Amino acid sequence: MPERYVSVRWPDGHTQEIYSPSTVIEDYFHIGQTLPVAEFVAQSRAALTIASDRVRAAYGFPCSRAAASIAAVTENAARFEKGDVTVQGIAA
Q: What highest taxon heads this organism's lineage (predicted)?
């Protein structure tokens, strides 16, 4: 599968790299995009669930790394009541 890594900056300046096993993540995010934390979490969850489902369709099991990415995004987001997340990069 064509994996992607999305680099984001959280409201406090902390950066995080998010793994996606599929290019579907590019349908949800683009470089320079800024989203409120809650919207970023929702879009990350949607994109990574689709990506994991694509792995399941191809290999018969979901992508554990996509699940770990969802968990990490959710954990980071819990630190913020408001603010924006900025997409800094998307790489193969």
A: Bacteria
In this predicted model, what pLDDT tens digit does every residue of 75-84 receive, in sequence order? 999 999 999 9
If you search the block for the tokens 């320079």, which residue do you land on? 32
Instruction: Count other C-beta atoms under 10 Å from residue 2's C-beta.
Output: 10
Full-model pTM: 0.95
Mean pLDDT to the nearest integer, 2-31: 97
- CB count, 10 Å around CB of 19? 17
Q: How far apart are CA 21 and CA 6, in angstroms?
A: 11
At CA 19, angle to CA 15 and CA 21, rounded to 5? Answer: 165
Q: What pLDDT sits at residue 13?
A: 98
